[in-house]
Amino acid sequence: RMVRAQKLRVDRETLRAPFYAQCYAVAPFAIMLGASEITVRLAHPWSVATGAGLMLFALLWYGFLQTAWFNQHLTCGRLKAFGHASRAMVESLIAVGLLSNLFR
């Protein structure tokens, strides 16, 4: 999303730096999502609410982080950065949804 917003050519070289930067942001997000799923599946009375809370926290944290990242790298306002972050999340969800159907 950032490379396209900067109107750069999308190739291996222009994607390398954003890819590695995103790896650092996604790792804690993935750990929190995994922990929230495990917590929900424990099936204790407290675990569903705790897992859902952790998932909500992970999504909000990742959204805030993405917004700050776009704000810094695209030197745009916070609202525009939030729009870029939201669009990137929707695009990635669509891509995962389409690609997951290939492996059924």
The residue-averaged pLDDT reads: 89
Helix fraction bin: over 70%
Structural class, from helix and strand content?
A: mainly alpha
Give the beta-strand count.
Answer: 0
Strand content: under 5%
User: What's the main sheet like?
Assistant: none
Walk me through the structure.
The protein is mostly helical and 104 residues long. Helices cover 82% and strands 0% of the residues. The protein has 4 helices and no strands. It has helices at residues 2-5, 12-41, 47-74, 78-100. Helix 2 (12-41) runs antiparallel to helix 3 and helix 3 packs across helix 4 (78-100). It is globular and about 50 Å long. The model has no long low-confidence stretch (mean pLDDT 89).
Write a concise synopsis of the structure shown.
The chain has 104 residues and is mostly helical.
Keywords:
single chain; mainly alpha; globular; 4 helices; 104 residues
List the helices and strands and how they pair.
Elements: H1 2-5, H2 12-41, H3 47-74, H4 78-100
